Amino acid sequence: MSDLSFLEGPRWHDGRIWVSDFYTHRVYSAAEDGSDRRVEAEVPQQPSGLGWLPDGRLLVVSMRDARLLRRESDGRLVCHADLSPYVGGHLNDLVVDDHGRAFVGDFGFDLMGGAPTRPTNLLRVDPDGTVTKAAEDVLFPNGSVITDDGTLLVCETMGNRVTAFDIAAGGTLTNRRTWAAFGEPPTEQEIEKALSQVVVAADGCCLDSDGALWIADATGNRAIRVRRGGEIVDEIRPGTGVFACMLGGADGRTLYLCTAPDFHEDARTAAREAVLRSVRVRAAHAGRP
């Protein structure tokens, strides 16, 4: 798929690839090969993370007004939860567990405005819309997965790491630990200096059947396959920036890559250079999403 602005939140659902396009303000779905493109939702305040409740209703992050929206059976978008009191920057990605609880992150600071970096919270939104701080002091929580044994893995884009939590009964996060480390957390707070200290800017991610994570390295122009501990065992370089990824296709072995020349808002708003690419891989999709 091409002629798009900036893609995030790819998901394989009901035999189709779904993706958010920031600056056309649309959620799209398409057939496995990118044909039969459909507009699934229009989100004026910029869509990002996608997930589904157990009854099949779509959840979509509305970034700029920090709301989680829910698509009803008639297609209407309604407010599932207002997260604005809890965030320090744009709302971002999410993962939904099998109970319908959404774990949602935000930037934590004004990324596009060049504000200093700072930690933020990982939030949990229960099926009734109740918002709870699930974890504090997270460095730009981004792509997240839930393993089949109930472990939540969260990419900390500005933290040089992937952090793991056990999901206890009721959705409480426990046993916080580092699942993969790529370097020390940055000591600088000025954004350009901080990014220079980031070895892997872990953005979107997905889990495979061997227990490895495919991670989009937002500053490295690549998707990497990472084992527990941080060993990089494979990489894909499409010749442009990679900002999210998801395994899907009929056999779960098609890796979709959200690509664009960069992540700068002014440039991406003015152009239609984002492309959803795919590559065949050996290990199939696992976990959620």
List the helices and strands and how they pair.
Layout: E1 7-13, E2 16-21, E3 26-30, E4 38-42, E5 47-52, E6 58-62, E7 67-71, E8 77-82, E9 91-96, E10 102-106, E11 120-125, E12 131-138, E13 141-146, E14 151-156, E15 161-167, E16 173-181, H1 191-196, E17 202-208, E18 213-217, E19 222-226, E20 232-236, E21 241-248, E22 254-260, H2 265-270, E23 275-280, E24 285-286
Antiparallel strand pairs: 1-2, 2-3, 3-4, 5-6, 6-7, 7-8, 9-10, 10-11, 11-12, 13-14, 14-15, 15-16, 17-18, 17-24, 18-19, 19-20, 21-22, 22-23
Protein model, in words:
This protein has helices spanning 191-196, 265-270, and strands at 7-13, 16-21, 26-30, 38-42, 47-52, 58-62, 67-71, 77-82, 91-96, 102-106, 120-125, 131-138, 141-146, 151-156, 161-167, 173-181, 202-208, 213-217, 222-226, 232-236, 241-248, 254-260, 275-280, 285-286. The strands form six sheets. It has a five-stranded antiparallel β-sheet with strand order 20-19-18-17-24, with no helix packed on it. It has a four-stranded antiparallel β-sheet with strand order 1-2-3-4, with no helix packed on it. The protein is globular. It is mainly β and 289 residues long. The chain has one domain: Neuraminidase (6 Propeller), CATH 2.120.10.30. Strand 21 and strand 22 (254-260) form a beta hairpin. The model has no long low-confidence stretch (mean pLDDT 96).
